[in-house]
Protein backbone atom coordinates (compact mmCIF):
# COMPACT_ATOMS: atom_id res chain seq x y z
CA UNK A 1 0.00 0.00 0.00
CA UNK A 2 2.89 2.37 0.64
CA UNK A 3 4.02 2.20 -2.98
CA UNK A 4 0.44 2.74 -4.20
CA UNK A 5 0.09 5.79 -1.96
CA UNK A 6 3.35 7.20 -3.30
CA UNK A 7 2.18 6.72 -6.88
CA UNK A 8 -1.14 8.38 -6.10
CA UNK A 9 0.62 11.35 -4.53
CA UNK A 10 2.61 11.83 -7.75
CA UNK A 11 -0.61 11.73 -9.80
CA UNK A 12 -2.61 14.25 -7.80
CA UNK A 13 -2.31 18.03 -7.34
CA UNK A 14 -0.73 18.81 -3.95
CA UNK A 15 -3.88 20.43 -2.59
CA UNK A 16 -6.00 17.37 -3.47
CA UNK A 17 -3.48 15.00 -1.90
CA UNK A 18 -3.37 17.13 1.27
CA UNK A 19 -7.17 17.05 1.48
CA UNK A 20 -7.32 13.26 1.08
CA UNK A 21 -4.66 12.62 3.70
CA UNK A 22 -5.84 15.08 6.33
CA UNK A 23 -6.35 13.16 9.56
CA UNK A 24 -4.54 10.03 8.36
CA UNK A 25 -2.76 7.89 10.94
CA UNK A 26 1.01 8.20 11.02
CA UNK A 27 3.16 5.34 12.29
CA UNK A 28 2.11 1.90 13.45
CA UNK A 29 -1.35 0.71 12.50
CA UNK A 30 -3.66 0.32 15.52
CA UNK A 31 -4.55 -3.16 14.21
CA UNK A 32 -1.00 -4.29 14.97
CA UNK A 33 -1.75 -4.40 18.67
CA UNK A 34 -3.68 -7.60 17.95
CA UNK A 35 -1.65 -10.81 17.64
CA UNK A 36 -2.95 -14.08 16.22
CA UNK A 37 -3.24 -17.46 17.90
CA UNK A 38 -3.78 -19.69 14.85
CA UNK A 39 -5.46 -23.06 14.80
CA UNK A 40 -3.59 -25.99 13.28
CA UNK A 41 -4.36 -29.19 11.37
CA UNK A 42 -7.58 -27.82 9.92
CA UNK A 43 -8.78 -28.51 6.39
CA UNK A 44 -8.19 -25.20 4.63
CA UNK A 45 -7.91 -26.44 1.05
CA UNK A 46 -10.92 -24.30 0.18
CA UNK A 47 -11.41 -20.82 1.63
CA UNK A 48 -14.91 -19.33 1.46
CA UNK A 49 -15.13 -15.56 2.00
CA UNK A 50 -18.72 -15.09 0.86
CA UNK A 51 -20.96 -13.16 3.21
CA UNK A 52 -24.42 -11.61 3.38
CA UNK A 53 -24.57 -8.08 4.75
CA UNK A 54 -27.53 -6.18 3.29
CA UNK A 55 -26.72 -8.00 0.06
CA UNK A 56 -24.67 -11.02 -1.02
CA UNK A 57 -20.93 -10.50 -1.47
CA UNK A 58 -17.92 -12.50 -2.60
CA UNK A 59 -15.73 -10.53 -0.21
CA UNK A 60 -16.29 -9.05 3.25
CA UNK A 61 -13.93 -6.17 2.39
CA UNK A 62 -15.82 -3.20 1.00
CA UNK A 63 -15.52 0.45 0.04
CA UNK A 64 -16.30 3.10 2.66
CA UNK A 65 -18.05 6.32 1.63
CA UNK A 66 -15.59 9.02 0.62
CA UNK A 67 -16.40 12.36 -0.98
CA UNK A 68 -15.66 13.98 -4.32
CA UNK A 69 -14.18 11.09 -6.33
CA UNK A 70 -13.92 13.18 -9.49
CA UNK A 71 -11.31 15.30 -7.75
CA UNK A 72 -9.20 12.16 -8.00
CA UNK A 73 -10.15 10.72 -11.40
CA UNK A 74 -12.61 11.65 -14.19
CA UNK A 75 -14.36 8.27 -13.82
CA UNK A 76 -15.37 9.23 -10.30
CA UNK A 77 -17.90 7.28 -8.29
CA UNK A 78 -19.23 5.39 -11.32
CA UNK A 79 -15.80 3.83 -11.90
CA UNK A 80 -15.55 2.86 -8.24
CA UNK A 81 -19.05 1.35 -8.18
CA UNK A 82 -18.34 -0.66 -11.32
CA UNK A 83 -15.09 -2.03 -9.91
CA UNK A 84 -16.74 -2.95 -6.60
CA UNK A 85 -19.51 -4.86 -8.36
CA UNK A 86 -17.01 -6.74 -10.50
CA UNK A 87 -15.11 -7.75 -7.36
CA UNK A 88 -18.24 -8.70 -5.42
CA UNK A 89 -17.43 -6.14 -2.73
CA UNK A 90 -19.79 -3.82 -0.82
CA UNK A 91 -19.81 -0.21 -2.01
CA UNK A 92 -21.19 2.83 -0.18
CA UNK A 93 -21.95 5.96 -2.19
CA UNK A 94 -21.14 9.21 -0.41
CA UNK A 95 -23.81 11.88 -0.16
CA UNK A 96 -20.97 14.24 -1.18
CA UNK A 97 -20.57 12.43 -4.49
CA UNK A 98 -19.56 14.16 -7.71
CA UNK A 99 -21.65 11.83 -9.90
CA UNK A 100 -25.44 11.59 -10.06
CA UNK A 101 -26.94 8.86 -7.88
CA UNK A 102 -28.73 7.36 -10.86
CA UNK A 103 -25.54 7.19 -12.93
CA UNK A 104 -23.67 5.44 -10.12
CA UNK A 105 -26.56 2.99 -9.71
CA UNK A 106 -26.40 2.20 -13.43
CA UNK A 107 -22.68 1.45 -13.14
CA UNK A 108 -23.13 -0.70 -10.03
CA UNK A 109 -24.15 -4.11 -11.34
CA UNK A 110 -24.35 -5.44 -7.77
CA UNK A 111 -25.90 -4.21 -4.49
CA UNK A 112 -24.81 -0.84 -3.14
CA UNK A 113 -25.63 1.36 -0.15
CA UNK A 114 -26.23 5.08 0.21
CA UNK A 115 -24.51 7.19 2.84
CA UNK A 116 -26.72 9.80 4.51
CA UNK A 117 -25.80 13.11 6.11
CA UNK A 118 -28.66 14.81 7.88
CA UNK A 119 -28.46 18.29 6.41
CA UNK A 120 -29.77 21.54 7.83
CA UNK A 121 -32.36 21.50 5.05
CA UNK A 122 -33.96 18.14 5.84
CA UNK A 123 -35.99 18.33 2.65
CA UNK A 124 -32.81 17.91 0.61
CA UNK A 125 -31.76 14.90 2.68
CA UNK A 126 -35.17 13.31 2.24
CA UNK A 127 -35.16 13.80 -1.53
CA UNK A 128 -31.70 12.25 -1.85
CA UNK A 129 -32.77 9.28 0.28
CA UNK A 130 -35.86 8.74 -1.87
CA UNK A 131 -33.75 8.89 -5.04
CA UNK A 132 -31.25 6.37 -3.66
CA UNK A 133 -34.01 3.96 -2.70
CA UNK A 134 -35.66 4.33 -6.11
CA UNK A 135 -32.29 3.74 -7.82
CA UNK A 136 -31.78 0.44 -5.99
CA UNK A 137 -29.78 1.10 -2.82
CA UNK A 138 -30.14 -1.80 -0.39
CA UNK A 139 -29.22 0.05 2.82
CA UNK A 140 -28.69 3.54 4.22
CA UNK A 141 -25.53 4.47 6.14
CA UNK A 142 -26.36 7.32 8.49
CA UNK A 143 -23.14 9.08 9.43
CA UNK A 144 -23.62 10.04 13.05
CA UNK A 145 -20.30 11.63 14.02
CA UNK A 146 -20.67 14.90 12.11
CA UNK A 147 -22.88 17.39 13.96
CA UNK A 148 -20.29 19.78 12.55
CA UNK A 149 -17.49 19.14 10.06
CA UNK A 150 -14.25 18.58 11.97
CA UNK A 151 -11.56 21.14 11.36
CA UNK A 152 -9.14 18.43 10.29
CA UNK A 153 -11.56 17.19 7.64
CA UNK A 154 -13.52 20.03 6.14
CA UNK A 155 -11.28 23.08 6.05
CA UNK A 156 -9.15 23.80 3.03
CA UNK A 157 -11.32 21.96 0.49
CA UNK A 158 -9.51 21.99 -2.87
CA UNK A 159 -11.06 24.06 -5.67
CA UNK A 160 -14.20 22.21 -6.73
CA UNK A 161 -16.68 23.33 -9.35
CA UNK A 162 -20.21 23.65 -7.95
CA UNK A 163 -21.45 21.61 -10.92
CA UNK A 164 -19.52 18.68 -9.45
CA UNK A 165 -19.90 19.33 -5.74
CA UNK A 166 -23.66 19.97 -5.96
CA UNK A 167 -24.48 17.53 -8.76
CA UNK A 168 -26.98 15.62 -6.61
CA UNK A 169 -28.40 18.45 -4.54
CA UNK A 170 -28.76 21.36 -6.98
CA UNK A 171 -32.18 20.25 -8.23
CA UNK A 172 -33.55 20.13 -4.67
CA UNK A 173 -32.40 23.57 -3.53
CA UNK A 174 -35.12 26.13 -2.77
CA UNK A 175 -35.00 29.17 -5.06
CA UNK A 176 -32.32 31.61 -3.94
CA UNK A 177 -30.96 29.29 -1.25
CA UNK A 178 -27.33 29.37 -0.18
CA UNK A 179 -26.40 25.87 -1.34
CA UNK A 180 -23.45 25.31 0.97
CA UNK A 181 -25.38 26.53 4.02
CA UNK A 182 -28.36 24.31 3.17
CA UNK A 183 -26.26 21.16 2.96
CA UNK A 184 -24.28 21.71 6.16
CA UNK A 185 -24.77 18.99 8.76
CA UNK A 186 -27.70 19.38 11.13
CA UNK A 187 -26.41 19.58 14.70
CA UNK A 188 -29.88 18.64 15.93
CA UNK A 189 -29.76 15.08 14.54
CA UNK A 190 -30.79 12.43 17.08
CA UNK A 191 -31.51 8.70 17.38
CA UNK A 192 -35.16 9.24 16.44
CA UNK A 193 -33.90 9.98 12.93
CA UNK A 194 -32.91 6.32 12.53
CA UNK A 195 -36.49 5.12 12.45
CA UNK A 196 -37.63 8.09 10.38
CA UNK A 197 -35.10 7.31 7.65
CA UNK A 198 -35.94 3.61 7.71
CA UNK A 199 -39.62 4.43 7.23
CA UNK A 200 -38.90 7.00 4.54
CA UNK A 201 -36.83 4.65 2.38
CA UNK A 202 -38.08 1.24 3.43
CA UNK A 203 -34.44 0.24 3.91
CA UNK A 204 -32.27 -0.91 6.83
CA UNK A 205 -30.27 1.89 8.46
CA UNK A 206 -26.66 1.48 9.60
CA UNK A 207 -25.27 4.12 11.97
CA UNK A 208 -21.67 5.01 11.15
CA UNK A 209 -19.18 6.69 13.48
CA UNK A 210 -19.87 4.72 16.67
CA UNK A 211 -16.95 4.17 19.07
CA UNK A 212 -18.77 3.42 22.34
CA UNK A 213 -20.62 0.30 23.43
CA UNK A 214 -23.41 2.26 25.12
CA UNK A 215 -23.98 4.40 22.03
CA UNK A 216 -24.09 1.28 19.87
CA UNK A 217 -26.73 -0.17 22.17
CA UNK A 218 -28.70 3.07 22.09
CA UNK A 219 -28.74 3.12 18.28
CA UNK A 220 -29.82 -0.52 18.05
CA UNK A 221 -32.60 0.11 20.54
CA UNK A 222 -33.73 3.01 18.33
CA UNK A 223 -34.00 0.72 15.30
CA UNK A 224 -30.54 0.60 13.70
CA UNK A 225 -30.00 -2.57 11.67
CA UNK A 226 -26.24 -2.10 11.79
CA UNK A 227 -23.49 -0.33 13.70
CA UNK A 228 -20.40 0.92 11.89
CA UNK A 229 -17.36 1.41 14.12
CA UNK A 230 -15.42 4.32 12.62
CA UNK A 231 -13.47 7.45 13.49
CA UNK A 232 -14.25 9.07 10.13
CA UNK A 233 -10.70 8.57 8.92
CA UNK A 234 -9.38 10.73 11.75
CA UNK A 235 -11.15 13.76 10.29
CA UNK A 236 -13.66 14.57 13.04
CA UNK A 237 -12.94 14.73 16.79
CA UNK A 238 -9.22 14.44 17.42
CA UNK A 239 -7.63 11.92 19.83
CA UNK A 240 -10.52 9.46 19.68
CA UNK A 241 -9.95 5.80 20.37
CA UNK A 242 -9.09 3.87 17.22
CA UNK A 243 -11.77 1.65 15.69
CA UNK A 244 -9.38 -1.26 16.26
CA UNK A 245 -9.66 -0.56 20.00
CA UNK A 246 -13.39 0.15 20.08
CA UNK A 247 -14.57 -2.77 17.95
CA UNK A 248 -14.53 -5.59 20.55
CA UNK A 249 -16.64 -3.64 23.06
CA UNK A 250 -19.13 -2.51 20.44
CA UNK A 251 -19.46 -6.02 19.00
CA UNK A 252 -20.07 -7.44 22.48
CA UNK A 253 -22.73 -4.83 23.23
CA UNK A 254 -24.58 -5.41 19.96
CA UNK A 255 -24.34 -9.19 19.91
CA UNK A 256 -26.45 -10.82 17.22
CA UNK A 257 -29.08 -8.05 17.22
CA UNK A 258 -27.42 -5.96 14.50
CA UNK A 259 -24.73 -6.16 11.86
CA UNK A 260 -21.32 -4.78 12.90
CA UNK A 261 -19.07 -3.03 10.38
CA UNK A 262 -15.72 -1.33 10.83
CA UNK A 263 -13.21 0.85 9.00
CA UNK A 264 -10.06 2.71 9.99
CA UNK A 265 -6.48 2.04 8.86
CA UNK A 266 -7.26 -1.31 7.23
CA UNK A 267 -4.34 -1.75 4.86
CA UNK A 268 -3.86 -5.48 4.35
CA UNK A 269 -5.33 -8.92 4.84
CA UNK A 270 -4.02 -9.21 8.39
CA UNK A 271 -5.87 -6.06 9.42
CA UNK A 272 -9.05 -7.43 7.87
CA UNK A 273 -8.54 -10.81 9.55
CA UNK A 274 -8.20 -9.14 12.97
CA UNK A 275 -11.32 -7.04 12.40
CA UNK A 276 -13.44 -10.02 11.36
CA UNK A 277 -12.17 -12.11 14.27
CA UNK A 278 -13.03 -9.29 16.68
CA UNK A 279 -16.66 -9.26 15.65
CA UNK A 280 -17.02 -7.29 12.42
CA UNK A 281 -19.29 -8.75 9.76
CA UNK A 282 -17.54 -6.71 7.07
CA UNK A 283 -14.50 -4.43 6.87
CA UNK A 284 -14.23 -1.22 4.84
CA UNK A 285 -11.39 0.78 3.31
CA UNK A 286 -11.35 4.40 2.19
CA UNK A 287 -8.08 6.03 1.24
CA UNK A 288 -6.54 2.98 -0.51
CA UNK A 289 -9.52 2.97 -2.89
CA UNK A 290 -8.87 6.61 -3.75
CA UNK A 291 -5.18 5.86 -4.26
CA UNK A 292 -6.04 3.09 -6.70
CA UNK A 293 -8.58 5.33 -8.45
CA UNK A 294 -5.99 8.09 -8.82
CA UNK A 295 -3.39 5.77 -10.31
CA UNK A 296 -5.51 3.88 -12.85
CA UNK A 297 -9.22 4.48 -12.46
CA UNK A 298 -11.51 1.46 -12.14
CA UNK A 299 -8.58 -0.87 -12.81
CA UNK A 300 -6.77 0.58 -9.81
CA UNK A 301 -9.80 0.09 -7.58
CA UNK A 302 -10.16 -3.51 -8.76
CA UNK A 303 -6.49 -4.12 -8.02
CA UNK A 304 -6.82 -2.82 -4.44
CA UNK A 305 -9.92 -4.90 -3.75
CA UNK A 306 -8.55 -8.06 -5.34
CA UNK A 307 -5.23 -7.75 -3.52
CA UNK A 308 -6.98 -7.32 -0.16
CA UNK A 309 -9.32 -10.22 -0.88
CA UNK A 310 -6.46 -12.52 -1.92
CA UNK A 311 -4.47 -11.55 1.19
CA UNK A 312 -7.46 -12.25 3.42
CA UNK A 313 -8.01 -15.69 1.90
CA UNK A 314 -4.32 -16.51 2.38
CA UNK A 315 -4.14 -15.44 6.02
CA UNK A 316 -7.45 -17.12 6.84
CA UNK A 317 -5.91 -20.39 5.73
CA UNK A 318 -2.80 -19.75 7.81
CA UNK A 319 -5.02 -19.01 10.82
CA UNK A 320 -6.86 -22.30 10.35
CA UNK A 321 -10.21 -20.86 9.22
CA UNK A 322 -11.94 -21.93 6.02
CA UNK A 323 -15.06 -19.74 6.36
CA UNK A 324 -15.85 -16.27 7.70
CA UNK A 325 -18.07 -17.88 10.34
CA UNK A 326 -14.99 -19.62 11.80
CA UNK A 327 -13.31 -16.31 12.61
CA UNK A 328 -13.80 -15.59 16.30
CA UNK A 329 -12.09 -13.63 19.06
CA UNK A 330 -10.15 -16.65 20.33
CA UNK A 331 -7.92 -16.14 17.26
CA UNK A 332 -6.64 -12.77 18.50
CA UNK A 333 -4.76 -11.64 21.60
CA UNK A 334 -3.95 -8.06 22.58
CA UNK A 335 -0.24 -7.58 22.93
Automatic annotation (TrEMBL):
<dbReference type="InterPro" id="IPR013785">
    <property type="entry name" value="Aldolase_TIM"/>
</dbReference>
<comment type="similarity">
    <text>Belongs to the FMN-dependent alpha-hydroxy acid dehydrogenase family.</text>
</comment>
<dbReference type="Pfam" id="PF01070">
    <property type="entry name" value="FMN_dh"/>
</dbReference>
<feature type="binding site">
    <location>
        <position position="232"/>
    </location>
    <ligand>
        <name>glyoxylate</name>
    </ligand>
</feature>
<feature type="binding site">
    <location>
        <position position="208"/>
    </location>
    <ligand>
        <name>FMN</name>
    </ligand>
</feature>
<feature type="binding site">
    <location>
        <position position="117"/>
    </location>
    <ligand>
        <name>glyoxylate</name>
    </ligand>
</feature>
<keyword id="KW-0288">FMN</keyword>
<protein>
    <submittedName>
        <fullName>Alpha-hydroxy-acid oxidizing protein</fullName>
    </submittedName>
</protein>
<feature type="domain" description="FMN hydroxy acid dehydrogenase">
    <location>
        <begin position="1"/>
        <end position="335"/>
    </location>
</feature>
<keyword id="KW-0285">Flavoprotein</keyword>
<keyword id="KW-0560">Oxidoreductase</keyword>
<feature type="binding site">
    <location>
        <begin position="65"/>
        <end position="67"/>
    </location>
    <ligand>
        <name>FMN</name>
    </ligand>
</feature>
<feature type="binding site">
    <location>
        <begin position="286"/>
        <end position="287"/>
    </location>
    <ligand>
        <name>FMN</name>
    </ligand>
</feature>
<feature type="binding site">
    <location>
        <position position="235"/>
    </location>
    <ligand>
        <name>glyoxylate</name>
    </ligand>
</feature>
<feature type="active site" description="Proton acceptor">
    <location>
        <position position="232"/>
    </location>
</feature>
<feature type="binding site">
    <location>
        <position position="230"/>
    </location>
    <ligand>
        <name>FMN</name>
    </ligand>
</feature>
<dbReference type="InterPro" id="IPR037396">
    <property type="entry name" value="FMN_HAD"/>
</dbReference>
<feature type="binding site">
    <location>
        <position position="143"/>
    </location>
    <ligand>
        <name>FMN</name>
    </ligand>
</feature>
<feature type="binding site">
    <location>
        <position position="19"/>
    </location>
    <ligand>
        <name>glyoxylate</name>
    </ligand>
</feature>
<feature type="binding site">
    <location>
        <position position="115"/>
    </location>
    <ligand>
        <name>FMN</name>
    </ligand>
</feature>
<feature type="binding site">
    <location>
        <position position="94"/>
    </location>
    <ligand>
        <name>FMN</name>
    </ligand>
</feature>
<dbReference type="InterPro" id="IPR012133">
    <property type="entry name" value="Alpha-hydoxy_acid_DH_FMN"/>
</dbReference>
<dbReference type="GO" id="GO:0010181">
    <property type="term" value="F:FMN binding"/>
</dbReference>
<dbReference type="GO" id="GO:0016491">
    <property type="term" value="F:oxidoreductase activity"/>
</dbReference>
<feature type="binding site">
    <location>
        <begin position="263"/>
        <end position="267"/>
    </location>
    <ligand>
        <name>FMN</name>
    </ligand>
</feature>
<dbReference type="InterPro" id="IPR000262">
    <property type="entry name" value="FMN-dep_DH"/>
</dbReference>
Amino acid sequence: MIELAQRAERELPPEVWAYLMRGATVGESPWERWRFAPRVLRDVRSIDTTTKVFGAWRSPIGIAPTAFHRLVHPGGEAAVARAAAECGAPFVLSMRATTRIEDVAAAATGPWWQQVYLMRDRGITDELVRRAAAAGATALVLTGDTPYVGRSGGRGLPPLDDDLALVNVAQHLPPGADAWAAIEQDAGACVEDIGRLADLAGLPVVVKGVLRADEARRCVDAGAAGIWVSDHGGRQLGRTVAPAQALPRVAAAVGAEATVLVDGDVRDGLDALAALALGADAVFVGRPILWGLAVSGADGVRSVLNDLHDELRHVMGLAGASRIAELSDDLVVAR
